[in-house]
From TrEMBL:
Residues 25-144 form the Tripartite ATP-independent periplasmic transporters DctQ component domain. It comes from Halobacillus salinarum. Belongs to the TRAP transporter small permease family. The chain crosses the membrane at residues 12-33, 48-65, 86-105, 125-147. Keywords: Cell inner membrane, Cell membrane, Membrane, Transmembrane, Transmembrane helix, Transport. The lineage of its organism: Bacteria, Bacillati, Bacillota, Bacilli, Bacillales. It is found in: Cell inner membrane. This is TRAP transporter small permease.
């Protein structure tokens, strides 16, 4: 069940970021073509591409947390073996979970609410939509970390059976 949920979440996040990446690529080509071939630079693509890049990067970071490919200082974790190493991993993930809840979700929601009345200069859309990726990615990270905690629980149960 946990593996299935993680697989669905992985595919969804990767699918969305892949679509965003293709749009970024095509938008950049259009931006260059409109500027240099048609001498009429597109006004909306620059702003759209900036916002999509932010969304793609933050969603990609959420995926990295879910697949444990995020940047990490492994010095402390590598000093331990067995149960102690698992404890360090759990403590690390609890810090990540707290960051995702407090900064990304709670803080992100406050930023979204504050900036919803401000509009972007060219696309004329609420800035809150740009910042909405923070709480969305925060929720994704929380789901990933809770699924990982379930794996830790199973790993601990397996270690206890060995002893």
């Amino acid at each position: 069940m946990v593996d299935r949920m993680k697989l669905v979440l992985d595919r969804t996040v990767l699918g969305i970021t892949s679509v965003f990446t293709v749009i970024l690529f095509l938008g950049a080509i259009w931006q260059v073509a409109s500027r240099y071939l048609f001498n009429a630079p597109s006004t909306f693509t620059g702003e759209l591409l900036r916002f999509l890049l932010v969304w793609t990067a933050i969603l990609g970071a959420a995926y990295a947390f879910g697949s444990n490919q995020h940047l990490a200082i492994t010095f402390l974790k590598n000093k331990f073996k067995g149960k102690s190493r698992l404890s360090v991993r759990i403590i690390n993930d609890l810090f990540i979970l707290a960051f995702a809840v407090l900064v990304m979700v709670k803080g992100g929601m406050e930023v979204v609410q504050t900036t919803m009345s401000q509009t972007t200069p060219i696309l004329n859309m609420p800035m809150g939509l740009v910042y909405a990726i923070l709480p969305i990615s925060g929720v994704i990270i929380i789901i990933y970390k809770l699924l990982l905690m379930k794996e830790y629980k199973e790993e601990m149960a397996g270690r206890e059976e060995e002893n």
